[in-house]
Amino acid sequence: MPGLLFIFAHPDDETFSAGTIAKYATAGVEVGLICATRGERGSTGDLCSIDELPRVREAEVREAARILGVRRVEMLPYEDQKLWTAPIEDIRRRITATLRRQKPQIVITFDPNGANQHTDHIVISRFAADAVSAAADPRWYPELGDAHSVERMLWPWPKPLLSEETISELDEQPGVDFIIEVGDFRETKGAATRAHRTQYPGLRRLFNSDVRLLFEAFRLGWGARPHTTPAHDLFA
User: Which of 38, 46, 109, 167 could staple 128 via S-S, CB 3.0–4.6 A?
Assistant: First the structure.
């Protein structure tokens, strides 16, 4: 069975690819999610205390994942807005263990600029690439199981709000290698986004029009290029 593994920094980062997650999960693809922090420096939305926020946000991302059809969610124990302080040996080992256990064909994480230059997004991109390389080399952590090589690493397009009007403009734009139609999953994406109750006021400003939820785009970080670009299947 094909597999996708999303590696992000915070609860709610997955919302930018939520339509794609729901589409592939519905098609029977095994989808996993690694969340490196519990987002303890996010907004409380006046729904909980600061001390309660990490627990609340973990519950929110697990509920969002359930709605989207993600079968495996792994929360890592690192600090929001200070992900760069995560011990490299520790985070490499944790992500490598997940890669070898889940054996995804494709890993999706932020691009090297973190999509919006958020420091945590930038460093999770670096940590993910490091672990993908380690997971493929049997000399790293042999006790974690057989080496596993992913076929592609993809980066969400940093401007994910795509409408039919903008798709034709992106066909010739370098970096737009996959365009996934997710219109049938707008309601699912909306429900998963609303599951992040503490962060929803900010997310609502981003996803403020259903028509803008018809497509999601991805750039090929490395791996096999599709025969034609943009392709309309991540496994093409």
Answer: 109
Which tokens is 193 given?
Answer: 């986004």
For residues 207 and 77, which has the higher predicted lDDT (pLDDT)?
77
Contact between residue 182 and residue 19 where contact means Cβ atoms under 8 Å apart: yes
Q: Do residues 11 and 39 make contact, with C-beta atoms less than 8 angstroms apart?
A: yes
pLDDT of residue 13: 95
Mean pLDDT of 42-71: 95
* Count of structural domains, the chain: 1
CATH assignment of the domain containing 160: 3.40.50.10320
Has residue 232 been placed in a domain? no
